[in-house]
């Protein structure tokens, strides 16, 4: 009995004096994981799951209520032969070209003017950025009044100078011009502010050196400003391409209540509006998912094209340019030698 008590007392003493084991690395990181877990939970529910489900849905025929039917690649094979889908691609690309290209050029000019302005610079920045934070629905309704066939301000101006009115919202090309004008007005100031931030990051010593070398303002702009702004130009080109290929609200507000989501002759039928009409108008959710993934492929393709045209390695560009100049010089010298 005494021996048992001695052993118990020794065990208790050892337990009391034994040092606590340090927590494992996962237990130590548990508060940090708990702090960031809301983001990952929300992303999994509202981001990752819809993306994965849309991939699965694109291989099924489903009306949103009944049983899902596996159809494999039939949605995509029909997509390649669907004339309405190709028309939506053509319309989207035309609207993108006549809106994005002038928009980026105008934004670069505005940014350069703001960079050289000495008075009211902050006021002009705010004024050019206001269209971007204005409701796109409200802006589209205003432009719908401006381009109205019968009572539009633009047609009133044309008739006041002796010209005939134009059926802007009835002709396919007029619809594209109207939508492109909305995009141009809304996003030019936004891109101008981004260009302005890039211009302000360029060191003034570069311009001083160019001025001392006798470079004209035009040469300075094209040979110094534009090359140094190439990363910013690439960013605006890619983001504008992504936004341009996802045009939807403008055509929906202009023609959503007319029964034809793309307007007369489907002149304003874009890829996203066709997706919306297929999924929520005709209840072909599987086909709408296939259109969405086709749009994703187009966005990736055009982003790569922008990267190849605008981005890339500057040293590689300079080396190729120098090689072409040397080859041209050798060819000219050879022609002169053969002539003599």
Automatic annotation (TrEMBL):
TM spans (from-to) = 33-59, 93-114, 126-147, 187-207, 228-248, 285-307
Give the InterPro entries listed for this entry. Answer: ABC_transporter_permease, MetI-like, MetI-like_sf
Q: Where is this region: Disordered?
A: 1-23
Tell me where in this chain the ABC transmembrane type-1 domain is found.
89-306
| Chief location of this protein within or outside the cell | membrane
UniProt KW keywords = Cell membrane, Membrane, Transmembrane, Transmembrane helix, Transport
- What spans are recorded as compositionally biased (Polar residues)? 1-16
Q: Which Pfam families match?
A: BPD_transp_1
Q: Which residues form the signal peptide?
A: none
CDD domains linked to this entry: TM_PBP2
In what way does this protein cross or attach to the membrane?
Answer: Multi-pass membrane protein
Q: Where in the cell is it found?
A: Cell membrane
Domain of life of the source: Bacteria
User: Which family is it part of?
Assistant: Belongs to the binding-protein-dependent transport system permease family.
Protein's recorded name: Sugar ABC transporter permease
Q: State the species of origin.
A: Kribbella koreensis
């Amino acid at each position: 009995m005494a021996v048992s008590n001695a052993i118990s007392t020794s065990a208790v003493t050892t337990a009391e004096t034994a040092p606590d084991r340090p927590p494992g690395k996962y237990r130590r990181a548990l508060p940090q994981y708990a702090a960031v877990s809301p983001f990952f939970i929300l992303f999994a529910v509202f981001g990752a799951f819809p993306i994965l489900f849309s991939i699965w849905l694109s291989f099924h025929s489903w009306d949103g209520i009944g049983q899902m039917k596996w159809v494999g690649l039939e949605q995509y094979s029909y997509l390649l032969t669907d004339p309405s889908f190709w028309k939506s691609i053509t319309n989207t690309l035309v609207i993108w070209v006549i809106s994005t290209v002038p928009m980026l050029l105008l934004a670069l000019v505005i940014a350069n003017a703001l960079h050289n302005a000495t008075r009211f610079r902050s006021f002009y920045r705010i004024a050019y950025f206001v269209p971007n934070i204005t409701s796109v629905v409200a802006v589209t309704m205003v432009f719908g009044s401006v381009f109205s066939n019968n009572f539009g301000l633009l047609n009133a101006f044309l008739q006041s100078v002796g010209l005939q009115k134009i059926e802007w919202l009835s002709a396919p090309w007029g619809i594209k011009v109207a939508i492109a004008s909305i995009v141009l007005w809304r996003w030019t100031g936004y891109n101008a502010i981004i260009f302005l931030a890039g211009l302000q990051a360029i060191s003034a010593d570069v311009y001083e050196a160019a001025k001392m070398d006798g470079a004209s303002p035009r040469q300075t702009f094209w040979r110094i400003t534009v090359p140094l702004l190439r990363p910013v130009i690439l960013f605006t080109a890619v983001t504008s391409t992504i936004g341009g290929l996802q045009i939807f609200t403008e055509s929906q507000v202009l023609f959503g209540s007319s029964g034809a989501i793309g307007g007369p002759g489907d002149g304003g039928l874009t890829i996203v509006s066709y997706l919306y009409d297929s999924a929520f108008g005709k209840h072909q959710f599987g086909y709408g998912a296939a259109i969405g993934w086709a749009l994703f492929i187009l966005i990736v393709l055009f982003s790569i094209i922008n990267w190849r045209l605008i981005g890339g390695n500057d040293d590689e560009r300079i080396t190729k340019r120098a090689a072409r100049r040397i080859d041209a010089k050798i060819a000219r010298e050879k022609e002169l030698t053969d002539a003599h």
